Every structure is written in C-alpha cells, then in structure tokens.
C-alpha cells in the first residue's frame, strides 16, 4: 500500500512533541492505552488528524494549536486540553499566549470553562517547569 | 466618573469594524436591538468584552479573532459566528485562514459543527464579495 | 386505571397557561404536532413533566419557571425557550425579572447564548404586547 | 496513488443513499456547496467517515445509523439530523424504530432535544411519503 | 394505587442487570445514595425511565442500550456512561459492538469524547473480566 | 481611578459568603490559585461578575443564585456548581429549594446531569453539616 498519510502524520506529530519528553510520552501512552481495545482509533489520530489535517497549508503549527486549544476549552474536555497545551507549547505558543487565549474566551464561554482551563494550564506549566530544572 | 473602559472598548471595536460597513452596521444593529430590552448588555459588550478583554496585550487582533471563531464553531452559535467571521476578516484573517481554522476543528468537534460553520463562512464571504464589487 | 398524574399534570399546566391564549395554543399545537408521529411523548410531557415534577412542593411556580428558563438559555434550545418565557410570564415572572435572569447568565454562559435569548424574549414580549392591545 | 478509501467510501455511501433520490441529491448538494469553499472537507467525508469508519466490521448499517442519529439528536445539529434520518431509513431503519430511538433519549437529554428531533423526523417522513406517492 | 409503572420498571431494570452483580449493585448504590437527599429521583428513574420508556415496543433492549450509550458518549457524562456500558453488556451488546459504536462517533463528536469513552469502556471491560475469572 | 466596581463587587460577594467560612475560603482559594497565572481573571470575577452583574436590581440574591445553579447543572461544570451551591445557601436558598431546583431540571436536561448535580449537593450539604456541629 502506498498511502503515506501515516508516515506524514507521524512526522507532523513529531513537530508538536520533539524536545518535549512529557508530551511525547503522553502521546505514546494514548496509543498504548488504545492498543488492546481500539488500535485503529490510534491509527486514525495519526493518519487522519495529523496526516490529513495538521499537514495542510494555510495555518502555522502555532495557529493550529491555538484553534485546537480554544475548542477544547469551550468543550471542557480536560484530558485532551492538557495534552494540547503541551503540544501548543512545543509548537511555539508561549505561556502568556495560552493564558491570553483562555482569558479571551471569558465573553464567549463564561467563567466556569475558563477557570477549569486555567487550572489545567497551571498544572501543565508547573510540570514543564519541573522538567526544565530537572 | 473616570472609567475609560467604554471609550477604549469603542476604539478597539472600531479596529475590528472600520473599513467594513456590513460589520459595523451589524454591531450597531445589535446595540440597537438591545436598546429597548437590555441596554446594559450592549454596554457590557463594549466595556467588558472590548474594553477589558480585547484591549489586553499578549495576542494580536488576528489571534483573538481566531480564538473567538474556534469557540463559536464549537458551540454552534451561528449568529455570533457570522458576526465574528466579519470582525476576523477586518482584523486581518484571510478567507483561507478562516477555512483552515474551521477544517482544523474536524478532529475536535466532528463534521456537523464544521459543515454548519462552512455554510456561514460561505454566506459571509459572498456578502463581502458583493460589497467589494458594488 | 387510577393514575391521576395526567389529570394533575393538565391542572398544573393550566396554571401556567390560563389567561394566556398565545401560550395555551402553543401547548395545544405541540400536542397536535406530536399526535400522528409520537403521541406518547405529548402524554409524558403532561404526566411526567407537569404531573410528577411541576406539581411537587418546595418551589413556587415562578421559581420553577426561573430554573427552566435558565437551563434553556444555557442549552440554546430556542423553540422551548420561547414557550417557557410565555409560561414564566403567566406564572408571574415580570418582563424585568426575565431580562435580569438572562443578564445574570453572562458570566456563566458568555454573551452568545445571552444575546440569542434576549432576541427570543424581545419577540415574546412584543407578541404579548400586541395581544394585550388587541 | 493506490489509496482505495475514496472509492470504498463512495460505495458505502451508495448503500445509504441508493433507491433514495432525495437523500442522494442532498449528499451531492453538500459536496457541491463545499466545492468552491472547502472541497477537501467533502473528500474527508467520503474518505474518512465513509471509507474508514462506516466500512468497518462489527456493526450493521442499521446499527451505525442508530448510533449516528442518537448523537445528532443529543447535539441538536438539525441539518445533519435531517440528512441522517434519511440515510437511516435507506439503511433499513423503520420510521417506528427512529421514533422509538428519539423517544428513548427523553431520560438522557430531556424533552427539548427530543421535541426538536421529532419535528425534523416529521418533516423527513412527510417528504418521503410525498415522493413515494409521486 | 394501581399504577404498575414502578413494578414494570423494576422488572425491566432486572433484564438489564440480572447476571450482572457489579451493575445491579451500582444501580442499588445510586438508589441508596439518593435515599437521603432526593428519594423521588430514584423513583422517577424506575417509574419513568424504566417503567415508561424502556418497556416500550419497537426497539430491542440491545438497541435501546446502543441509543443510550451513543448519547452519553456525546454528552461526555462519564459516570452514567460507565453504568450503561454495563447495562448494555448485560442486555446483549458485545464488547466489539460497544467499541464499534464509540468508534462510529469519531466523525460526529470528534476524537476527545471518543477517547474519553474508550477509557471508560476499558475500565468496565476489565472489571467484568476480573469478575468472571473470580 | 474612580471605578468603584471592584469595591462594590467585593461587598456583594461578601453577602454571598459571610457567615460561611468554607465558602469564603473557597473564593479566596480561587483568587489565590489565579494569582500567579492569571490575576486579572480573579479581578474580572469581582469587578464584572459581582460588581456589574450581581449588584443589579430586579432579582433577589436568592433568585440570582437559583439562575446560576440551574445553568451550572445544565453545563455539568461541577467545581463551579459546588461553589455556587454554597453561595446559594448563604444567600438564603434552603437545601430543599436546591434539591427541588435540580429535580425540576430532569425534564430539561435528562437524568445524567441531575444525578451528577445531586452528588455534588450531597457533598456540600454534608460538609456544611459537619461545620455546624463542629
């Protein structure tokens, strides 16, 4: 089979996780957790989400991370928000940009989603700070 | 009273609507519609959303528009999406960036929200094309 | 069969719709619309929602309407919001209380749901004003 | 390129729409509407949704339609619900099964989503009745 | 009082929980937890959800479980999803059917809800495997 | 600067938390948690939510709490629900009124959101009972 999507998806995923041990291992852990119950879902994340969507032109990695984070804050799906705050930082978003993006959502989602997102951000920033000083 | 938030909010709002007759008139129409039922809500949009939040440092107008649009696509609140696709274009987002941002949301919201958002985008792009050639 | 819930539900529903032709006819229209596709759903609305829930002690009709309206604004289900703004007014909520309740939700749902709800409220208030002067 | 997903996706889509002119033309209309704004999204629907997901083993077409409809009722995304009530009927769901599935959701989504879905179902059933007698 | 709904509801509930100690005890635990704060809510679950809705004709127990699970995955209400994955298995859904139903939702809810649901499914399958080998 | 909103917001917040050590300390803890990541968000809660919105006329503190709780139950944002069940009790809502408000939402949100909310209510009531007997 000549479908290169899986390969391109893995390359793109690496751009979001390289130099980022915590995050790379989280992605591997997700794939691992899915292995015995739904291995194809892990494959679709690489092939479709990273291989088809993230590899498109027209937005930078940073912009795609900003879009993704804004959606996850709005949905309140916190495990995925934690993961994508990490991929966003690796893609080049600063902590300040992330806090500003979450703050920007107050008028559109109200305070509850924003407060829950800031709590996740605080945890992510603190883990990465610990890694950097380690 | 010395609170300059309303004034600063109006200035910021102008950055998102100037050179954009359709959009400016939509904002005025919202304020107008609220005038006899809830005038303070129109005031809070200017003072709080534009005066407090949009005027903050740390993200560009384009980035704030991207965050806002991503949240509105996720929520499926179409009248506000229509308005903020317009403010986003005025703030400097290209049509291609907007379509890419909506496409980026497929893995996070599924196709239904994305298809509904693209329909709104198509309408907005077409109205603005009509204005430009007028 | 001795189940009085349907009867009690109808009595309770009358408290929310009597003296309110627009609203009573809306309820009848809902039942009518359901008649050929899902008549039992209309029955469950009377028996369960009105017969079991609305007839409970511990909250006034006005308070139950306030709770219901707040949930419908949050969900963005506008046809039902329109109906329950009418039942709320008949139960004794003033237009001012309804506008205040919707405004109170800005910090909890953000502006989009609130603006959409105010538009529905404006329509309901205007129809009832037309009826009163008719 | 040897990726057969698009082809398999189209074949699977035909199973949900053949003998169903209204529905097939709706799918074509969606692809058509997307053509000038986001043609790749139409491609992903065929390749990923129909080519990757719907072609999987383990559930019948009828069961996949039931799952899809239940999610769309819960989300309240009505244009997609209308489409998938049609694909569900073509896949073999009866009108009675569809009404029962929507009714089954009352305890899980409450009445508002259910009433809005029944209204869409009524419209779909009526259009198809008109076609059959035409 | 001659209302048999509570009795019929309990019988129907037994069909979803018999031969399933974990699940039956979960249902009893829910009723127990509600006993001192809102005992009527436990009664409504039996009378209305099981007595009125689940006992209806037109869908099999397995189909009703599939509809319920699809809605709970979409909502992201995980404690209830855990419960209804159990009732679904007792009603005759296989683990493969459940995983397929969740996978079918990727195009309609996106990956986050699906990944969270698969995690709950993995937990439920593992607890039941433990019981069977116990 | 002459903006009194922060001051008025703090006064209003006190009405919802005075005589309520648990709750006051929760509010302080939120402000504290935000201090190093997003101190302005804590300021907006006081200035905008409490200073602008809660201080408005037209609804009593009890009514505002009822509206807020109904929205949070509907959204399923449990940390904020826990906080506002406490502010609601301090504002004068009885435990019975709170349980009734949650029960009233069954027909509008379905059982899952209601069961999750009752679990939070049970926890809040039990903590406050412990404090009173302490």
TrEMBL record, chains A, B, C, D, E, F:
Gene3D superfamilies assigned: AhpD-like (1.20.1290.10)
Example of a GO MF term: peroxiredoxin activity
InterPro entries, A to Z: 4CMD/NDH-1_regulator, AhpD-like, CMD-like
Residue ranges of domain Carboxymuconolactone decarboxylase-like in the record: 39-122
Name of the protein in its database record: 4-carboxymuconolactone decarboxylase
Species the sequence originates in: [Bacillus] enclensis
